[in-house]
Design goal:
By secondary structure, the chain is of the alpha+beta class. Helix content is 19%, strand content 25%. The longest helix has 8 residues. The chain binds zinc ion (ZN) (2 copies).
């Protein structure tokens, strides 16, 4: 038994996630995402897939990474 650090639920199937050396306890992936998932710096959504990391900045996808880097000035090859 352990208590979720996000919602306080005392749940027998809770689990621990180690992130950046600190151990966090959650009762659900929803709570884990809420607490430790990185946030896309372009659109603000939670990055729950692999995401894209550019120079230490997290983005949810290549599209956001491109826009955030001011790559609009660069020639865009893929207009599909
Ligand atoms: Zn919870
Ligand atoms: Zn995004």
């Amino acid at each position: 038994m352990a208590t979720c650090e996000v919602c306080g639920n005392d749940y027998d199937k809770s689990f621990d996630v180690v992130a950046a050396g600190a151990t966090h306890t959650f009762d659900s992936f929803e709570c884990a995402i809420h607490a430790i998932a990185p946030v896309c710096e372009h659109c603000g959504c939670k990055v729950i897939g692999h995401g894209t990391e550019v120079d230490g900045h997290f983005y949810c996808c290549a599209h956001c990474a491109k826009h955030a880097e001011g790559a609009e000035d660069a020639p865009v090859a893929d207009r599909a």
